[in-house]
Amino acid sequence: MARITSRLIVDGALPLQPAISPDGRWVAYTVSTLGRPEDRQRSAIWIAATDASSPPRKLTAGAAKDFLPRWAPDSASLYFGSDRVERGTVQLHRISADGGEAETLTTRPGGISDHLPLAGHGLVAVVAEDAPACEDVRVWGEHVPYGRLWLLDPDTGRLGKVEGLDDRHVAELAQCPDAGPLAVLSWAVPDLDPGCSTCALHVVDPETGTVRDLGDVEPAASSPVWWRTDGVWHLCYLATTPPGPVGGRAVFDVTVPAAGAAADRRNLTAGMAVCPAGLAQVAHGPPLALFADGLDTAIHRLDPATGRFQRMSRVAGLAVSLTASHSGEVVAALVSSAYEPMNVHAGPPAARLTRLSDTRPELRGLRWGTQERLSYRAADGLDLDGLLILPVGASRHDGPFPLVTLVHGGPYARYADQFMLGVFPSGQWLAAAGYAVFLPNPRGGEGHGHAFAASVAGAVGMDEWTDIVTGIDVLIEDGVADPDRLGIGGWSHGGFMAAWAVGRTTRFKAAVMGAGICEGAGPHRHDELSPVSYASEIRTPVLILHGEDDTNVPLGQSTYFHRALRRFGVEHEFVVYPREGHAIRERGHQLDVLERTRAWFDRWLAGPAWRSPC
Q1: What's the angle, vertex CA 240, arms to CA 454 and CA 544, rounded to 5?
Q2: Which of 21, 31, 383, 531 is the most exposed place for a label (fewest CB within 10 A)?
Q3: Does 303 have pLDDT greater than 50?
Q4: What is the CATH code for 367-604?
Q5: Is the Hydrolase keyword given for this protein (predicted)?
Q6: For residue 585, with 0-12 CB atoms within 10 Å meaning exposed, 13-18 middle and 19 or more buried, which class applies?
């Protein structure tokens, strides 16, 4: 029987960016390799019938980076970005839904970064960055490529810049149904410091280029959609709620007032026990939304009468990237469940969605570790959930096993009951080597409402740490985990938690800190809640991994922790991946992460006692 290897994981295909046609008959999507080749990223555009009446077909060859499919208003053709003309420079292209040769529509020296075909105007809204500066120096905040809004006539090639957005970065676009104006979300600056950009909302008339400012909106605003009730147009969007950026996301609603009138803004998800994760525009009705709901995902529709979202259906596991037809009668999304990798699904929003794509057939027939849903109570009685993956071929009766706890990032993220096979030492990768894997959802994450998410603001590493320890103790009491062979790891905020854990206790025999913060000025009590403050107490061997060009969590955080560990004689390794940002993208580096992390746990946990028979 085939075995799970690091190459099997990294060389797999991944569906991305589903876009349903306005008539609801087709869904286009991108298929890319999980690991980026060192020479060039390649991806292809695929198309599938939403009723599954025919198998998916490849629309572009995938010899270049073909991505960002967007449908023409008549559903007859697709616009997409590609660097097929010049490597590394993305230009806009158009291709018939029936296939054939693609037409190149832009030839800008700096290329484009986003686009949106506009109904009723024969135009395409294009976001293109300013020409890069040539100076061989880096001045923070200067010479950063801003996204500017342009309007393209695809038949003549005429490209006109939209003035009136001041010196702001264009982040996202959405056109009002029935050939209406364009909603524009902008940031004060491009994404230099996540969570620090000032967001604003604008309305642009494509005919005249006139810009109306609706004012500043909440941080990290995204996913704008239009809807109408009682003759008044509204704009909904996702944004971070106070105390942010830790507090989680909500759906905000803004009326689009007559000229000169003030816009009315309200939070549509206040008090809900679930968390919004995506919005989809419906031309003749209120918007649809995805909600993180515990370990699952739900599709909701906004009820105009009450101003509240009502659940239509539930998707087992994880669903992301919701897209809807013009009428809203058909939707598509990327869906993954416990033993099924991410694929494109489609169907009516109130019914079970049907899988359309099959991007990883090579995984069929492999044996996976049994994935269990966990529920337990925190020390203060709060209900918590998470996942347990047992070693491949094992049951609970074969325990206790060496246990590796993997903490998710964020902290505003979660583990849904999805297929756990990824490039950071994922659950199934470790389960194939004989480890039990605990995937906790401590407070601070999404899926349980705003209060749950906001509870760690100013107190990272406190109650969420206790939540994790409580779950480990439950698994020890149940005979699943060997208390003498415990490991912990995580990436980003999960990396912070791994660094925090080894400074609070010596019960872990190995730890992996991936792109984690070790010290910082807030929002928290600096010295008390910084892992580096406890470096002298650390006895656990630590593997530190970080991308050299990470601007989210700068490399200096890991460098500082490495120096502290060296100062106190703590066994550790410090690995820096060149050319990488906050996520590790290059194929060779991903292979190294997988192999190196598993070898680290093998070394310090004395090797798993249970080995899969497969």
Answers
A1: 70
A2: 383
A3: yes
A4: 3.40.50.1820
A5: yes
A6: middle
